Amino acid sequence: MDRKTSTDLMRLLHGEMPDSAAQELRDRLEREPELRGEFESIEQQWQKLELPDPPSAPRGFATRTVARARLEADRGLAPAWWSGTLAGRFATALVLAGGIAFGAIVASPSEAEDWSGFFDTEPTLAESYLLVMEEQADDAWQESDS
Description:
Layout: H1 3-14, H2 19-31, H3 33-47, H4 61-75, H5 80-83, H6 86-106, H7 118-121, H8 125-145
Helix pairs in contact: 1-3, 1-8, 2-3
């Protein structure tokens, strides 16, 4: 089986294929028993990847969390004299505006890193799983030679 077919099977299993392509592959699975067997093998391996159930929270965790959140909300982030008066609010706005202006002046757009191509080259979950399966198969092959 070629790599494209394996990738398509993984995408079908994970639900990453467009509906029309998924239907074509399902039709092909019905016609070709060898391909259906490969898909079932991949599906079994996929099912083995399930994560264990998360442990339960310790006793009293929710009560302590709510109490801490209320305590933090009462304190607030700004000093009391800043947020309580009109002058304090105005000073806060000036500090924020000054920080934004300073950041705009200091940051150079020519030095910014270009991330536009990052998402074009990032493999999908299905492709990354397929790569791991291939690496394991290569490792098993090398171990059998020794």
